[in-house]
User: Which sequence fits this backbone?
């Protein structure tokens, strides 16, 4: 079987975020992707997503650690929904588990890319 | 402003489900849509989705009532993720609130359709 290509992509994204390799991070998003920076505040497109990631890295003084603790992928055609438990930790911040939701789209070349990145799950309601 | 077209579609879907108007329900899904019937069991395509809806209606003896108690829509291009609080009740069953996740896709004619219907949210993990 092996891992789903989207699970491998998410592992790559986590590694790139933790290493602050933002070129590699934004490569994994569609051109018009939406990232929920915090509930009520979204970054749209690679430029804004990169700026948001850089600001988050500075905020956590380079100690941010993101990893997944389980996920289910619901896929149909060129669209997939990922339900994940995402562990976010950093020095001076307690580790938190988020119920993350990610939507991936498959490009014409077969490559999956993240179109909607909402690590807050239902935390976005009433933001 | 007015309501988002996807919010109106979900309201139509809830009404059609509650009235057991399954022709109207399946019209709101893409041809290859995935419905999580229960964690670990999916219906794929309009035919399976219709059969699952009919079975659920029989199970609840025609008393199923589905409604939304709040939602946030994250949209980019022809893809949207809905985070919703969905209230499900029926005679002889206690009302439950589900943290539902729906993915909609916009067809070439501009019509949004549901591609992934997971009313269980993170309940699908480890199913």
Assistant:
């Amino acid at each position: 079987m092996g891992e789903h290509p989207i699970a491998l992509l998410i592992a790559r994204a986590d590694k790139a975020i933790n290493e602050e390799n933002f070129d590699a991070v934004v490569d994994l998003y569609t051109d018009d992707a939406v990232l929920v920076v915090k509930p009520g505040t979204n970054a749209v497109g690679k430029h804004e997503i990169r700026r948001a990631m850089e600001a988050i890295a500075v905020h956590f003084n380079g100690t941010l650690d993101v990893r997944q603790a389980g996920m289910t992928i619901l896929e149909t055609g060129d669209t997939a929904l990922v339900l994940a438990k995402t562990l976010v930790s950093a020095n001076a911040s307690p580790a938190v588990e988020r119920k993350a939701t990610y939507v991936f789209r498959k490009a014409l070349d077969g490559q999956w890319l993240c179109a909607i990145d909402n690590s807050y799950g239902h935390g976005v309601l009433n933001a």
